Amino acid sequence: MRITGGKLKGRIIKCPDGVIRPAMDRMRESVFSIIGDLNGKSWLDLFSGSGTIAIEAVSRGSKDVELCEKDKIKVGTVLENVSVTEKDCGVKIKCHFMPVEYYIKRCKRSFDFIFFDPPFPYKFHEQLVLQCDQNNMLNQTGTILVHRPAEHFMPDTIGRLKRIDQRVYGRSIVDFYKYE
């Protein structure tokens, strides 16, 4: 895996042991191109896997980035991967190693961007997006992005959030939700 843009463009990121389905380079590059400038924006990477999405956010200008990954097998590799942002960008990614569901329940802050990238068999995308809304985890002008398989349905509206865009990348879809 490699970082597709920004200050760390081209940097190779290690793939951790355990089950992982890394977001495709093409999909990541496209999503970050759609989002645009991240300077001054906060980012939360849920179901982080290797930390690549969080690293990509820092590489593209975000200075306030957190990630959450529950698989303890991935901890060492994730910490090694994210250390590059502190060394080369002066940004330390805050890492939470726990189930995403638990993190969402206890989160006391909000973000400009929240990126969900659960394993494809995962079935609770809509419920987690609703919990983020109910827990006020998204800033009023923020965006939630949900990466999912094409066969997994997502509604146009979840709580106070409305789907404003949807991009298809082969079998993968990324949905963009914002407040109405």
Number of helices: 5
Identify the strand order in the major beta sheet: 3-2-1-4-5-8-7-6
Number of strands: 8
Give the N-terminus to C-terminus distance in angstroms. 35 Å
Task: Give the helices and strands as they follow along the chain.
Answer: HEHEHEHEHEEEE
Outline: globular
Assembly state (oligomeric): single chain
Largest sheet: 8 strands, mixed
Low-confidence stretches: none
Assign a percent range to the helix content.
Answer: 25-40%
Strand content: 25-35%
Mean pLDDT: 92
CA-atom Rg in angstroms: 15 Å
- Briefly note the structural class of the backbone: alpha/beta
Write up what this structure looks like.
- The chain has 180 residues and is of the alpha/beta class.
- It has five helices and eight strands.
- Helix 2 (52-59) packs parallel to helix 3 (75-89).
- The model has no long low-confidence stretch (mean pLDDT 92).
Give a brief description:
The model has no long low-confidence stretch (mean pLDDT 92). This protein is globular. It is α/β, with parallel strands linked by helices and 180 residues long.
